[in-house]
Amino acid sequence: MRWGAFFATTLIIIIIIFIQWPRIKQYSKKDKWAFFILIFIGWGLSMFDLPNMAGPTTWIKALFKPFAPFME
Amino acid sequence: MEKGKISSLQMAVMLYPAIIATSIISVPSIVAKYAKNDLWISPIFASVLGFVTVYIAYELHKLYPKQTVIQFSEQIMGRFVGKMISLFILSFYILSTGQIVRGYSEFIVSSFLLKTPISVIMASMVLLCAFAVQGGIEVLGRLAQLFAPFFIVPIVIFVVFLSPDFDVKNIFPILGGGVVPPLKGAVVPGGWYSEFFLIIFLLPFLTDVKKARKYGMLTVLAVMLTLVVVNLTVLFALGPTTASKVFPLMNAIRYVNLGEFFENLESIAMAIWIVGAFVKISVFYYVVVLGTAQWLNLSDHRVIIWPFAIIIIEFAFWSLPSSAEYTSYLTKVLPFYGPFVQTIIPLFLLMIAAVRKRKKGTANS
Asked: Which residues does chain B have within 8 Å of residue A11's beta carbon, measured at their own beta carbons?
């Protein structure tokens, strides 16, 4: 768990919510949900050691593995 | 949603730095690895992908003039399959934006600000781009229009300044290894040319759509010429060592010493290149935000701009533990992933859409 990144992200998220809330108050429920879910995803991801974690890039790399030898 | 309008010219000046900004920095050495001294021919071969992608995007746009690919995929393939395809396309752009930020930041840190934490570079650029995206497509168009000369003119000046150091003989033997090496070298720039598919997100907002195809093709031509010139410049200035340098253009610029007055120009090169990266990242960021808002059927895309700032930076780190890993991704995965998402899938969509239209036509008559 990378505390530094996590705390920095938490702080930034608090700032974002603070500044953006007056603006998003007026939007529909769906928009508010989208905002908070994406924020949550961003917040959650900051807990992990991302560079060394398998992710979408790893899957894509696996998907295109057959072509890789061509570029050796 | 987006109510702004831009002109075809603005679309062109958004696309040109969007494609060029990262490719002139690291692509010459990657191409040199495969094509050696024929590296200047590769961008010409690769440009075919650019023209084809612009054509496909424009044809798709003609069928669905008010929609972007995220929206009309559902019309073509049905709700579920369409949503899955557009999710795949959307995630490509989210991943790409993260990688572009990573590539930009790696370059700045390794060439200039060695002691600065990379996240600071990333955050400062993403912050700036978030503000630009918040301004909407008109602001992006005008920003691109404003900055394009600052980006293009210095490239020309640098080529001129480097010319005293040119060793034109480096170009020989032309096609010494046959046509295969430059073809192989064309695979990587091809990934960059397929980014022209970005126009599918911009075409619905054009005021003069009729000119769009012309401007699109002209931009491909401009990109091709720029890459050829940059590759030649690097070849003439660095010769066979090109492939061993990670950032050959930067290396070449460091050599400039004109009458002992124009020295250390790499700092100006950095400033210019930051401008290019700013336009590029802003365009991609905009596409990500607009695309996601359309995929989720939100009423306004601007709500999700700031959450994505965090997500984009996280994607810049995810699964890329080192710059070697990052370069490997650029050379081995992106040349196939990029055109697959931005040329092949759209071609597939276009064909299905054309067939559906024909069927509808015969059913009605």
From this structure: none
pLDDT digits (tens, 9 = 90+) for B255-299: 777 777 777 778 888 888 899 999 999 999 999 999 999 999 888
Contacts of B310 in chain A (CB under 8 A): 9, 12-13, 16, 39, 42-43, 46
CA B41, distance to chain mean position in Å, is 19
Cβ–Cβ gap A51/B335 under 8 Å: no
Q: How confident is the model at residue B152 (pLDDT cuts 50, 70, 90)?
A: confident
Domains of chain B as residue ranges with CATH: 8-353 (1.20.1740.10)
List Cα–Cα distances, B227 to B10, B19, B47, B105, B305, in angstroms.
Answer: 21, 10, 10, 22, 32
Of A5, A53, A67, the CB nearest to B336: A67
* Closest residue by Cα to residue B276 from B19, B102, B9: B19
Domain that holds residue A18: 3-64
